[in-house]
Amino acid sequence: MSSYFEFFCQNLACKSTQNADRILGTCYSMCPEDEVKLREAERLVHVLEVWGSERKLVKSYSRSAADSNMAVPHLLRPYSVLVNTVQYLLLDITRRVDVPESVMYDFVNDRLRAVRQDITIQRLHPTQCVDLLEPMIRFYVYYGYVLSGHPLKDYDPVLNKKYLLECLKWYLSCCDIIAKEEGHIDKLSDFFSSLDLNTRGKTKTKLVNDQVLLESLYILCNPDDLHPLYRYLKMAKDLKGQEKLKLSYEIAIANLQGNYVKVCRLSEKLCPLLYCAISTYLPILQRRALNVMCSAYNNKRLTVPSAALVRWLGFSTDRDASTACSHYGLQVNDNMVRFDKTDFKTDARLHIPVIRNIRKKFEVSLIDIFTYETCK
């Protein structure tokens, strides 16, 4: 089955008949009544859909079958309901602490896929798509880093990267369409910026649509890919000149040049989500850098202190640096590493370092992760 992004692009070719064929959803709750009855009867209500004595069901994702018709108005949620659903999932459900993070991630991911399914079937306008996709991308970036140390049975990084790139490319494609229609790309939508959300704590929180952040994420989520860099070079001057976007471009160029120390040094200037994006890539960078150092510092007697590796390659502590070196076959004694190119294990699995507490490092809350703006 093709991705939602591919389906969206295919429908652009038949834009002239799109409005006539559009299906408008008439389900004004987060879960269609038919699904609510079925899941309650079959006892398929998720623990995260229960708040004390109250049940708050959210439409789950279901694959389309050959004999089923999913384009039924009363089963589809209109744009306003999809907005409320995304808000609820990211600003309420993610704060639940009564289940493991991996369980919460699986639940939210499934419900976000159902949102994207409703977007695709209804063929929502690009201005509406970007508002819905932007917070989803934040979700996949943040939890892609937070859960990166979890076992495969609890979290699949390959699937997370697939969903992340699908949403990113879809978002950027919508940006390009809006730019052509309106003749500018400075401001895609003011909807999220003006939207007040009453959370469970009765405090007002705003979801935002930050194109600069998303363009930067496209670069740092694909540091080995040239296409994001080509896109950057073709951007309008006002967008290209944004500080965080320029910094992301510099980091990607330094990575392609093999200047791994510069990548780690510049990464300390990034905002929380951009830091999550590059940190997810950090284990690959560290392995490459250590392999290069085995040739540059190849010596039977001389050693390099692990404290230097912490400064150069972004390890959290001397112990983390020593553990990574030992993992790749290098000899470590009293936090002193001996680099010998004959010792390096090129076939060793990727070493995942200890995950840093992003919220503590940047002094931000989980809600801040989904709502901050790079320009402020």
UniProtKB/TrEMBL annotation:
Upper lineage = Eukaryota, Metazoa, Ecdysozoa, Arthropoda, Hexapoda
Q: Which GO terms describe its cellular component?
A: centrosome; nucleus; spindle
Per its UniProt record, what Pfam families does this chain match?
Answer: SAC3_GANP
Name assigned to this protein: SAC3/GANP/THP3 conserved domain-containing protein
Q: Where is the signal peptide?
A: none
Q: At the top level of its lineage, which domain of life is listed?
A: Eukaryota
GO BP annotations of the record are:
centrosome duplication; spindle assembly
For this protein, the record's InterPro entries field holds: SAC3/GANP/THP3, SAC3/GANP/THP3_conserved
Task: Report the residue ranges that make up the SAC3/GANP/THP3 conserved domain in this protein.
Answer: 30-333
